[in-house]
Amino acid sequence: ILIFFLVSYSISTSVNYASDFSKKFSMTTLDFEAFSLSKNFIFESKNVELSNLIANESIAVFPQKSYVIRGIILKYIYDKNVIVLPEESKKGAALFKKWAEEGKNVLIIDPTTSFMKTLVSLGVSYEPVCSSMNVFRLKKSDEYILEDPSPYNVVEKDLTKILNINCIPKLSLYQHPISNENRSLIIFENVKIPENAKLKFSIALHPQVWNPNKGDGVVFEVFIEHNGEKEKIFSKYIDPKKNPEERKWNDFEIDLFKYSGKNVTIILSTLPGPKNDNRWDWAYWGDLRLIRIS
Asked: Cα–Cα 20 to 30 A to 9, which of 15, 64, 234, 272?
């Protein structure tokens, strides 16, 4: 009898909170249940840092796994404006796009790389939130995030990672140099450059290779190819183990005004340092995007 009561209560509570919450965010109960009552959830109520983040936000989203009974978690969702999505939920990602366009204040907490790639594919913009966890905030923006790169001559074909440096997480492309004679290339083809646009990005070496005797740094380069002509628009050598000021995400913006309205190819390349030593060259490009300058 007790077991029957608990199960019945959990189901009843789930439906009631799902209904109330769906009304609050203009969703049907069926839609809410489709992506919020599945078997995969994540929630950690004992994390103080996380609780503080959630307390100051409108909506917080966990796109991974959970071990909390659905009746309890739905009550917390309703009371604290926290949404829990199934892992890799495309339906949830599409909802994010709607929220971003509406300017809602939404946190994405500890997402998988593939979930973030889904957001990018839908044209959803975001910004990092300083946290020991990987936390992002949706951003209403007309920025264009570069996606679907074609790797050529790369060490690892699974390019996309989430890398957190100094509590700043970024959706990143990993590009380990090969040699000065044999370039590694990541290519974005047929990119339409908006009017008055800049290419905005960050570069870094992984914190685990900031120690002495781990390589000799990396050269990051960007090329634009248009009508058969190639132009180098960026080149920067960094060696964080020798230069402490480079132990961070190093941010850059490059004018693309001369290419406004044109379809171009953007090419990323990395090279070893002056000794042509590619050991420990764990090089990352962070949050590559086109931004418009008003």
From this structure: 64
- What tens digit of pLDDT does each residue of 46-75 get? 344 545 555 554 555 555 444 333 333 443
- Biggest alpha carbon–alpha carbon distance for the chain: 77
Strand partners, 220: 236, 270
Q: Are 118 and 73 in contact (CB under 8 A)?
A: no
Q: What confidence score (pLDDT) does residue 91 get?
A: 63
Give dist(CA 146, CA 288) in Å, integer. 6
Q: What are phi and psi of 283, to 5 degrees?
A: -95, 140
Q: Which residues contact 87 (CB under 8 A, 6 or more apart)?
A: 40, 63, 64, 65, 112, 115
Which residues are registered as beta bridge partners of 201?
252
Strand pairing category for 184-192 and 250-255: unpaired
Q: Which residues pair with 255 in a beta bridge?
A: 198
How far is 106 from 83, CA to CA, in rounded Å? 10
Q: Which residue has the tokens 């380069």?
A: 221
Tell me which residue of 63, 123, 135, 61 sits closest to 98, measured CA to CA.
Answer: 123
pLDDT in tens, 146-155: 887 888 877 7
Question: What's the rounded Cα separation, in Å, for the pair 151 and 155?
Answer: 10
* Beta strand segments in the chain, E: 59-62, 82-84, 106-109, 125-129, 135-139, 144-145, 150-152, 160-165, 168-174, 184-192, 197-205, 218-226, 229-238, 250-255, 263-272, 283-292
Distance, in Å, from the CA atom of 49 to the CA atom of 227, rounded to the nearest integer, reads 51
The two three-digit tokens of residue 206, written as one number: 């992984």
Q: Give dist(CA 103, CA 118) in Å, integer.
A: 19
Q: List, for residues 247-256, the tens digit of each pLDDT value.
A: 999 999 999 9
